[in-house]
Task: structure prediction
Amino acid sequence: MNSADLKTALAQVKADVDKALVELMGAEEGIPGRLREAMTYSLLAGGKRLRPVLLLWTWQAVAGRSSRQIPDPTADVMRAACALECLHTYSLIHDDLPAMDDDTLRRGRPTCHVAFDEATAILAGDGLQALGFAWLAQACGEKARAVIAKVARAVGPAGMVGGQQLDLAAEGKTVTREDVARIHSLKTGGLLAVSLATGAALAGANDSVLSELHHAGLELGLAFQGADDLLDLGGASEVLGKTAGKDEAAGKATWIRVVGEGEARRITAEHGRGGRDILARLLPDNPATSRLLALASFLWQREA
Result:
């Protein structure tokens, strides 16, 4: 798949996810008005919708098997994809808070605590986290227990939350390449990995396939975060949708700081190719897989 076709496909699935998010949020009852407004403000602010896309396209690749037709996702699969976007958005709201990375720009708009207030932003993140798990429980049927346990670990204290703690502790400190990899794996890689694995699980993949897909997701997560750090180094806020140059100013733990820009690019490419190669070896040869492989390459070669 060429870059133009990938861009078109991503735009379409993003529109589908956005539509589903509007419908699902609209169906939720009992949320106080200002809290709903803050949750919706951040959830519908845009973004790549990468976690939902990875879930949906992996489900289609596995469910499609040898078919030359890409199957349409069921309502439950779409709900599960939207659940992961809730969890990702909650993490962004909290990541931007003054006590954390203290940022004022996210997805090209004022961050939630700037647009509303800090207390409301904290509650909006809490609400989206709980809602994400509720939607997963509703979507996954008999697989809910296993899926929720894996997602909770990916985003919890031994996963994304732990990675955020390590990231804060490492600011301005001497770190190694391995330290950076651990932070990136926990803070970014885990949720990408569980997005792939959840899509495959809902399509009926066995435990061996799920384990390898999780490994592929961790590799792609390292590549994605490496590319993000490189973009932060030389990008513009208007293009990135967030404040550029903050990582360097804050002394964040990045491969750039540890080994320099050139080696950071090599490491990023190494992990990106490694993750893509696992997907190519593991998944059926069908149009959905071809599209997913193109996305895997885009993750670390992107310009925004």
